[in-house]
Amino acid sequence: MLSAITVSKETIAFRDSPEPTLEPGHALVRVHNVTLCGTDLHIWEDDYPSELPLVQGHEFSGIVEALAPGAGPGTAGGSDPGVASGSAVGLRDPGNHNLSIGDRVAVNPIIYCGRCRPCRTGRYNVCQDVGCLGCYSDGALTELISVPVEKLCPVPDHLPLDIAAMGEPASIAMQAVNRGRPEAGETALVLGSGPIGLLATLYLTELGVKVVCADTEQHRLDLAVEFGAADTLLVTPGLAFPDEHQAPRLASLTDGYGPQLVIEATGVPSSLENAIRLVASAGRIVQVGISPRQAAVSMKDIPYKELDLMGSRMSLNLIPDGLALLARHPGQARALMTHRFAFSDLEKAYRLMQGRTEKIGKILIQMPAGGTA
Ligand SMILES: [Zn+2]
Ligand SMILES: [Zn+2]
Q1: Ligand 1 centroid from CA 170, angstroms
Q2: pLDDT tens digits, residue range 115-141?
Q3: Which ligand is nearest to the CA of 118?
Q4: For ion ligand 1, residues whose CB falls within 5 Å
Q5: What distance in angstroms lies between residue 125's CA and the mean position of ligand 1's atoms?
Q6: Distance from Cα 39 to the centre of ligand 1, integer Å
Q7: Which CATH number fits the domain that encloses residue 66?
Q8: pLDDT number for residue 370
Q9: Where are the alpha helices (DSSP H) in 209-345?
Q10: Is the domain of 6 the same as that of 113?
Q11: Distance (Å) from CA 309 to ligand 1 centroid
């Protein structure tokens, strides 16, 4: 089978290797679709704490081709001590009890130890030894992958398999929203209208929250309206945000108090600074954008407004919920997927992301077995 190996900075090598054998507690998944995100770009640019060479790909969907004996209906599987199932600590099962060969699945790429204190308290997405298929160990840019059976998430009947690859980013957006404890009738400010910000907007809107989206690109804000944003604010880098026209709009949308919840989905330091400045008293901020850079946060606003400042990382088994969110909004899900490349053109996809010259939502890599089954 053919795998795409990121061998060094911005260099992909396609290599033939034997197909994986079925281990206890595992399933073999024929990969059909992989979507790429900013993390993938950073890994490819060798600007991420991953070690190369690496088979990338952590957002993916495919068809179950083989199930280890005992890993079929009625069991949760997961006996490999190297890739803990977490079932021993009573973690929520993603709902794979009735899987069969031929089933359409998305895959939860998180790997955790199941033994450390965060894992034992159910916070395994921030396991002290957390891993991710395609980021820290080999992932899905290969024709056939072996994964612990409890990582499989059945794809709803009416959800196309290519869209199902976005179950993972949808789960990240939902985790960020859940961390923020939104309540119907509140107003949220979502900073950044990339895929995570847009999917967070979609979910918040479903929950009855009024969402204001801010981004530096008008075309992304146009998409934000399709995802439910009640208003949008165009940010001009280097200028005051919100500007003199936007400030009264934001005030009127929040009864003059500021948003109760801010989701920071850009990873730009000034954006977190804006979040702390703009959020209402007693408000909540969820930082989901990731950056190695430092932000200059106000040590007055945080205590004066008694803010809850929270981080959000990957998700607590929300891929089934992410798939359901996408299935409820087929038009928006389809609009998010702006580009499509054949597996053999993987490098072109990375170059496109790197160039930032086109309007890019999600980029889909169609694997040889893929299609829109
Ligand atoms: Zn991703
Ligand atoms: Zn752990």
Answers
A1: 10
A2: 999 999 999 999 999 999 999 999 999
A3: 2
A4: 37, 39
A5: 14
A6: 6
A7: 3.90.180.10
A8: 87
A9: 218-226, 246-253, 269-278, 301-304, 319-328, 330-336
A10: yes
A11: 23
